[in-house]
Structures are given as C-alpha cells and as structure tokens.
Amino acid sequence: MTEKIKNEPQNIDNDFVLVSRDAKAAEVIDTPKYSYWGSVAKTFFSSKVTIFMLILMVAILLMSFIQPLFSGYNLMDVSGVNNFGARYNWPSAKYWFGTDADGKSLFDAIWAGAKTSVSIGFIASLITTVIGVIVGAIWGVSKSIDRLMLEIYNVISNVPMLLIIIVLSYTFGNGFWNLIFAMTCTSWLGTAYFIRVQVMIMRDREYNIASRTLGTPTRRMIFRNILPYLTSVIVTQVSQLLPSFISYEVFLSFLGVGLSQSVPSLGRLISQYSPYMTSYPYLFWLPVLVLALITVSLYIVGQNLADASDPRTHM
Amino acid sequence: MKKYVFFRIIRSLVSIFLVTTLTYIIIYSLVPRSDVFKNDTMVSKLKADPDKLTDYENTAFSKMNYIEYYDTKALLAKAEKDSPEVTAKPTAANKQLLEKWGNKNGFTIHQFKIGKGFYATRELSLLERLGRFYGNLIQWDNPWAVHDAKNPNMPRYLKFENDKLAGFALVGSGTKYRYQIYFNSSFPYIHQNFLKFNLGSSYPTFAGIPVTTVIGARQGKTEVVQNVYPNGKTFNSADNIYSRQYQPKAQQDSSVRERYGDDYTNTTQNYQDPSMIGTSFKAGIWALIISYVISIPMAILMARYKGKWFDKAGTAIVTVLIAVPSLAFIYAFRYLGSSLFGLPDSFPTQGASSFASWVSPTVILGLLSVSGLVIWFRRYMIDQQSSDYVKFAKAKGLNDGEIYRKHIFKNASIPIVQGIPGSIIGLIGGATITETIFAMPGMGKMLPDAIISHNNPIVIGLVFIFTTIAVFSVLLGDILMTIVDPRIKLSASGDD
Fold this sequence. Notes:
Helix content of chain B: 55-70%
Low-confidence stretches of chain B: none
Largest sheet of chain B: 4 strands, antiparallel
Strand order of the largest sheet of chain B: 5-6-7-8
Oligomer: heterodimer
Number of strands of chain B: 15
Number of helices of chain A: 14
Shape of chain A: flat
Radius of gyration of chain B: 29 Å
Strand content of chain A: under 5%
Distance between the termini of chain A: 32 Å
Helix content of chain A: 55-70%
Structural class of chain A: mainly alpha
Strand content of chain B: 5-15%
C-alpha cells in the first residue's frame, strides 16, 4: 500500500475535492440511537423460518377468529342429518375439509373449534403471566412473603398440574370461564416461582445494590430496574404456556370434562372423530393437523421472539 | 442429614394431608350432591316407586358420608331404647315419639311419600366427614381386632411359624387377617396384611366396593391355583389363600371350614390381570426406562456435535414434539404402531396377558417425556463443556471421548438423577391420556372415568395416591442426588 502511494504522488492533488463544513450534519450524533424493540424486531425478522412460522401463525389466527363470523357454524345444528348426499363427503372443492355425520362442513367446525381452543390458550396464558409476574416480583424482593409463599408452593407444586385442572374443572362444572378458572387457579404459582428466582438473581446484582443505596423505593426497583431485564424470560414462559394450555383444553374436552356440550373445540372434534380414524381418516386427521400447526407455530414464534428479546443477542 | 430427611418426611406428610383435605373440601362442597345420580340407571328404574328411590338415594348418600341415614327398621331399633312403646305405624303419637328422639340426637324425621313409613337423616358437617375420613384412613390389624360374642375363647396371638398353607409367615389369631406377613413368589415377595388403608367405598361405579380394593386388587378373570390344604387334601381353587379373614361361625361354609381347619375362611379370589395401580406402575416403570434409554444417548450426541446436522435435526424434532399436544402425538404413534407393526389399537383387544398390548402404550408413554429430557440434558452437557475442569482435562491431553465419558457425563447426570423419581409425576400425567386412549385398566384411566361418573370417593382416593407418589418421588430424587454427588448437602441449603 505504502509503495503504491510512493509511486504515484503526482495524482494526489487532482483526486481530492474540498468539502465545506455542513452545519446540519455536524448536529447529528453519529452513532444511531439504540432502540430495544427495534433491535428485537431486527433480530427476530432475520430468520426465514421464523418469518414463515409467523405468517402461518397469523394466517391460522385470522382464520379462526374471522371465519366463524361468516360460517355461522353451530355444533348443535343437526338439520343435515337426514340428507345422505351431504354426509361423509370427502374433501372437495365445495367442502374443503369434507363433511361429518350431520352433513356439517368440517372446515367450519375446525375454525370454530380453533377459535375456542386458541381463546382459552391466550386468556389463560395472559392471566397466568400477569398474576405470576406481579406476585413473583413481590415474592422475590420480600423476605417475609418468601417464607409463606415457599410453603404454599411446596404443597401445590408437588401435585401434578393435570390432576389439579381435572379436579377443579370437575368441581366447578362445565363452561368456558370455569375452565379458564380451573386452569389459572394454581398455574400462576409456577410462573411466580420462576420469576421469583429470576428476580432474586437480579436483585443482588451490583447495579441494584447501588440503586438501593441511593434510596430507590422497592416498587421502582421492581418495575424499572428488574422486570425490564426479564422480558426474554417472560416471553419464553408465555411461549411455553400457550401450547400447554391449548393441550390441556384439548385433553379435557377429549375426556368430556371442561367445556359445555354446545361449545365446539378442537379437543371435542378430535375425540368425536377418533372412531373414524380408519373409515373417514380426514375427519380425524385434519383437526389434529390444524391443532399441531397452531401449537407448533405459536411455540416456535414464541421461542424465537424470546431469543430475539434477549439483549445478549443484540450485539 | 438424618434430621433433614426426618423433617422433609414430616413436611411431605403435611403436604399430602393438606392437598387431600383441600381436594376433599372442594369436591364435597362444590360438586352438587344430586350429580351423583346423573348417570345412574337405577334412578330411572326406581322412578315408579318413590319410596324405594328415596331409600336408594339416602343409602347412597350415607355410603358416601354425606348424611347419616336410618331406614324405618333401623330407626325403630334406635328409638325403642328411649321409648319402648314406639311402633312403625304412621300415627301422630309415633311421629311425636320419634321426633323427640330425633331432636335429642340431631336427626330429622321424614316420612316416605307413599308407604308413610318413618326414616331419619342427619346432615354430616364437612368437618365431621373429614374426621371420619382421616379417622378410618389407617387400619392396623391386631390380635384384639376381632370380637365375636359366639367365640369368646378365641386364642389371641401373633406367631412366626411355618404354616401348612402359606409357608413361613407371621400368623395371627384374633386378628382380622390370618397372615399378617407372608412370602411368596410374586413381586415384591414380602407381603403384609396388618396395615390397610381405608379410603371409603366407591359409589356409584363399583358400588359398595372399598376404594382400595377397586384400585389395588387384581382384575380380570379368576385364576385357579392348586394348593395343598391343612387337612392334607389338594384342591384346585381360585381362592386367594393369603387373604384369609375371620368369619363368624354362622356365615362359614362347612366344607371350606373343613379345608382350612380354623375360623379364617373368608377369602378373596385370585385374578389373572394386574390391579389398576399395578398396571399403571408396570407401564410407568418401563416407560421411564425407555425414555431415559432414548433421551440420554440422543442428548449426549447432540451436545457433542453441537451445531452440526445431528444437533440441528434433533433440536427440530424435539421442538415439534414439545409443541404438539400429547393427544395428537399419541394418536399419531398409535396409528404408526398398528399400521407398521400390527400392534393392537386398544389394550383390551388382547388383554393384559398378551405382551403386544403393552408395547404401544408403554413406548408412547416413554416417548412423551423424551423431548423434555433431551432439552434439559443437552443444556446441562453444553453448560459443562465450557467449564474450567473440561479445559484442564483437555490440557492434560485427554481425548474428547474420555472427557465426555469421565467428566462431563458424570457432572451433567446429577440433575438428571435428581429428576428420575420426579419423572414419575410426568408419567402419571401422561398416563392419564395414554391409558384413556388405549382403554388400559389403570389408575390414569380411572381418574377421568371416576370424574365422569361422579364417583367422588374414587377421585379423592386417586388424588391421595397420586399426591403421595408425587411428594415422595421428589424427596427420593433429592436423596438420590446427594448419593450421586456427596458434595451436595441438603441440610445446609436453607431457604434457597
């Protein structure tokens, strides 16, 4: 390099142009401003698999919330039961997913069912996460609450979750909100315990000790100093909770515990059509497939969102 | 350490007590009482005869410990002690006498709608019901257990002797069961009869049978065995000789008495198939083994070739397995099992005696927990890879294989060993689904069945059993961990 410059000294004067000072550009700070969520979005959208799963997820969610508005599907409608031409049609251009024993379109049934299942998953995860994070944060910073909550946690966490949900949904009877209550009644305790451990780890970091020394009140410590750093952990939790709640709903409906008889759900479809596995396999496998697509896309999008929201991946 | 384990056991017992009590209170106070008869066919049969229906319902409630119930005969027998002139006739005078007795003892006197006969009921408070439940929970057999007025000179003893029928056994007389401790060739080889749990009696399914019998007794067809009896003769019989119980003379069958030569003639039968609890355990243990045999080598390979194709493919599979609901997972693998290997779709098709009927449910139960195990074990191994002792081992000149086998595996297996008993909880949860789908006669299937048929005593019994298993498996896991890694001290851990 240096040799090259030495060899061609005569060109230098012609190559350079004098640039006057731009007052406006001088005002701009040269490092771009760091935006947390902007950075999350950048990392998140950098993976093709994630984008594909996101599109799939959005498509399924839109279908399950918009399609039932137009289809007018009613589980209790048996008007087509005597119309032999309408019964057990294999998937075709007219009936995309075929028809069942009552001559009802499976396509409508699946989206109506998916709407219930997804709603339950979302509402239950939301409740569990909100209560779990708030309680967990307080639990993590307060020593006196810690002692009491640990005992409660020790008792409840020893019992299989499925057992609690089954027993509660049995005692409170069938119904959409009863089922959500049964699911969230104790599940927040697991999230709260998880958050408590994370809060305890963050609580004793140097910056928080310094902050406390400077007189920051506890509430501000929790919401300003600790919780923002737990975003990725919380997103991971949510992405695991969502599919698991959907699975619980499916299983309970399969058993006939949980939702009332008139509410369509994927679990009900699967249990209703499981005898047709060999005779009319589309009736059974299509709901299973849609269910699997919902949970897999939710889980993968959630996991990748959690990875992206971890500040350590932003470097 | 001993002190710590002692207090842990106490705390575990408290946990079990609290959970069972809570479940008991929740179920008995929130499930409407009338739900019991929702699916009962007897109720519709008895609709034509309201008196019998009332009697039936009250008997059921009293069996389930909701109320105390005396029908006309029992009521008169009780009331006659106070006022001998009372009769069964539905007169005002009799009613007054009975009501006086009822007020004194807290009973309400009712009359049957048609026959006008009297009967009495008393609501049991939740506390009283709980008291009865726990009061009767544990039953110890002892030489003073049987009191028979017609047999006052019964010898009372406990002796360890070589019994003619049962071989070496702790034999009791005056006890409820003849053989208190006995040995035979069936697992777990040592058996006992002196400690029995009483969880109430099942209703409306398996009506009247004790909950422990429903869950713990063998099922299926009776099995005939050949035994040489104390009178020297050899018989083929389905009687389970180890279950001999005291029977008053009036109820004894003379030929059976002749056969055994004493008053312990009441036996249960031998059955072919394992009990509900046995079925669940058998499938559960094998599933546990299968899941570890698959997941540990898989996790080791994934950690060792981190970032390579095997790791990537493994992670993708595991992610999908975690996300797919277990119901879909089970159906898919059941379909594969039956179409590729010709395994039966449902357990009762070939029954418990056929090996093939166990394969699908057990393998699927094992596969269900593989994904969780692989994820965690891979994580532990990878965390260990970057630690200083691994770098040091590398510097010493050990090759990768040795480092993985001798260093990383041992350290990473500590949390896995701790999790082994805990996996049993997961297997119970999974077993509810697999057993239901395969119609396997185990505890996991019994829970939803009991719930759907509103069989509260069985639900409580199962919650009690599941909680006990879960609580003690967590404790066992902690103890195992200290055995594998002596550096870990449970007692010093304090409150995290």
